[in-house]
Amino acid sequence: MAELAVFTRLDRPALIRGEWLDQQQALTTIIAGLLIKSGRRLDKAASDVMTEDYFDALEDMPAWTVREALRKWNRAESAQFDPKQPHDFKWAPQPPVLRKLAEYELLRVTGRIRQLQRLCDASALVEYSDEHRAGMLERLSNLFNRAADAMTRESAHG
Length: 158
What we know:
Blueprint lengths: L1 H4 L8 E3 L2 E3 L1 H15 L6 H15 L4 H12 L20 H27 L8 H28 L1
Antiparallel strand pairs: 1-2
Helix pairs in contact: 2-3, 2-4, 3-5, 4-5
């Protein structure tokens, strides 16, 4: 399972727009795309502040999770966390929302890894023959009978 756990690490390269990028490069590319797509004209100071906000929110998330969260956002397939406040897919997700969506993608994979690990750790079901089962039931019956006899003798003497 260690082979699968590598997908949750931050030192794993991410494929972004056909290029393998390290974590920092990948997040920079993703965030730059978000700012460009926002449709708002941002001066340098506003752009720097927004970039910093996204980095603060996403720096400890594997880049592929952010990319997958955005892919689902762009397809209006993002998980809904609050049914009273549905996503407005006309706008780019704000940093905290994008973080929650990326965490959701990461949890899906880590949950699957745990599920596969439990499957690998499972022990095979032991099947006993009918003769073995009958013998064990007879032994158990004898134990119960002896215990019942002992209790009967004890209550007769006490």
